[in-house]
User: Fold this.
Amino acid sequence: MAEQEQWMQQLQDVGAYLEGHFELTTGRHSGQFFMLARLTERPWILAQWAKQLARQVHTLGPLGAVVGPAMGGIIPGYAVAQELKGVRMIFAEKGPDQTMVLRRGFRIELDEPVLVVEDAVTTGASVTKVIEAVEGMGGRVMAVAALVDRTGGQSPWAIPLLSVVSVAIPSWIPSQCPLCASEVALIRPKA
Ligand SMILES: [Zn+2]
Assistant:
């Protein structure tokens, strides 16, 4: 637990973890917000996070590729792949009908073991689409690795969800938000 607090402190120090009253992209409100671009803008700090994930990933056996969803998964995915020596880094992009697709000549071999990397997992919606894209090309997704697991350890998938920091962050629909009720100013953090 103490170790988790140190990682959280690091996020706070670089402005990647904020406390206040936030409107999430889902429209829900929360008192806490992760802006992980403030972490990934510092490669020398991100490298420590990538090493921590790579240590956990080694238990999965050999991997062929890391796949990250654009935008959030690209930089952390690259940092993790760099720790894994000889593992390719691929990114998935928005495709037709709310899917994620691999473009730019990216290929997954049949039965190739793949790790999906994302900056933060909340509902796992975009990661689920990446898993579908990888499996659709014949790959095997062994685990998902995130800098921050916002589910508090409740992996939305049958495969493991690895993370550096795992926290359960409460959020509310606006009509039930206690911060709205106490008239705290609302922030749209990514604007
Ligand atoms: Zn609110």
